[in-house]
Design goal:
Helices cover about 85% and strands about 0% of the residues. It is mostly helical and about 80 residues long.
Length: about 80
Amino acid sequence: MKSLLLTLSSVVTALALANCAAPAGPNTQRGAVTGGLLGAGAGAIIGHQSGHTAEGALIGAAAGGTAGALIGNSRDQEQYGRY
């Protein structure tokens, strides 16, 4: 339970700080949400195999959301000409 709370607080802190960096474009936001949902699903499935469904979902959501936001940000920069 302690590791679950630590993981959850780390994810919330990272998301809060990431929001302060710059205004996110539509592709960044869409990528973060989509990646987070897909990552949570995959993490829950993988975590279930070892008896840690919730922890797997949290880790998957964080990793998927980060990857999706990075890909979406790249598309935003190409689309709007910000480098």
